[in-house]
Amino acid sequence: MPTSEITASITIWFSRPSVKAAILLPTTPSGSGHIADPAYDRDAQTRALRRFNDLVAADAAMEKLILPVRDGITLIYKKP
Question: What pTM does this model have?
Answer without folding.
Answer: 0.69
